[in-house]
Amino acid sequence: MKKIADEEGVLIKTRLEEGDAFRKIVETAEEERCDVIIMGAKKRGWSRKLFGDNTVAKVIDQAPCPVRMVAA
User: Fold this and answer.
1) Which H or E run includes 57?
2) What is the rounded CA–CA span in Å between residue 37 and residue 35?
3) What's the CA gap between 11 and 43, in Å, rounded?
4) pLDDT truncated to tens, each residue of the chain (72 aa)?
5) pTM recorded for the entire structure
6) What total number of domains does the chain contain?
7) Spatial separation of the C-alpha atoms in residues 15 and 12, rounded to whole Å
8) Which of 30, 34, 44, 67 reaches 20 to 30 Å from 14, CA-CA?
9) Phi and psi angles of residue 57, each rounded to the nearest 5 degrees, phi first
10) Distance CA 9, CA 11 (A)
11) Domain residues for 22?
12) Buried b / exposed e along 55-70 (16+ C-beta atoms within 10 A)
């Protein structure tokens, strides 16, 4: 990934944070003034999507920039 980013002139940063996942992702995106957030997501059943804690949906709803999803 780093090699491709370097070839394309894209800066990728990795951070390890502790706390509520969606809040930390949104806070970091604000602090770093990110252009985009890329998240991996596993396929889940419809009941989990409706009733479970969905970090991806919360990030999409509150992110200060576009969020792109990739299959994990």
Assistant:
1) helix 55-62
2) 7
3) 28
4) 788 888 999 888 888 999 999 999 999 999 999 999 988 877 766 545 554 568 888 999 999 999 998 876
5) 0.74
6) 1
7) 10
8) 44
9) -60, -40
10) 7
11) 2-71
12) ebebbbeebeeebeee
